[in-house]
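Q: Convert this sequence to structure tokens.
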Amino acid sequence: MGPTVHSKYRNTTAVAEDRAREMMKFFTDPDTKAIICLIGGNTAAQLLKPLDYETIRNNPKLFSGMSDIGHLNLALLSRAGLVTIYGPDLTFGFGADRNNPATRYNIDLFLRCCTRPEPPWKMPAFTQWECWRPRNARGRLVGGYLGATTSLYRTSFWPKLGKTILFWEALQTQPHDIERQFTIAEAEGMFEKVTGMVVGKLVGCEEKDDERMLPDIKEILLEITKEYGFPIIGNADFGHSGIFMPMPEGLLANMDTKNLLLELIEPVVR
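A:
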């Protein structure tokens, strides 16, 4: 565990340079096999610039985190070519109640995902997923927390992968804000190479400002993406709900809306 875990600076643990230095120490330590983030937090994006991506490329580690850590997941894939896990952290993932079936699902699936070398591998569901638009698709997984996904698109921190399956989840984001973010992203060309979309848990995302004027998030998405026609799975098992199906950034995957399946075609760890 890094020393900044026990420190405090404003609304985070330490200045960005100290946190980046600590992270680089983990990457260059030959005895460190995996880096699991403690928690998210909107200051995670402060590490985008000071990280040494070339050193990370030459010292790859298993890396997992979620929420605003999604900024780092995308940057590590884009700048260092590192496949990371948008998945459980130490606070709400590995540190949660082990008697909770969701916690057992999270830990068991993470370990299986990261230690099973032979593809293909179907990701088992914990709750009931939904088909929002039918069809099958293949592409490389990319995405994470909605705020990170839409803010990093069209920057150098966004991975250039060709055909992709875009996945995302949101916390306390009203439908009108989700509509705005994806309307801008669509205008910028985000969906041109998207072959499918997987929507995770949308926690606290009820409309409060325009409650009687807007449709639900499903209808908003179907409208914004109608010209592309790619399949969409909704209510998948990742997000801020306490359920953390590991989503490997950059790996090739199949999605099947008839059987509500997500299948990894490549191994996470080689």
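The chain has a mean pLDDT of 92.
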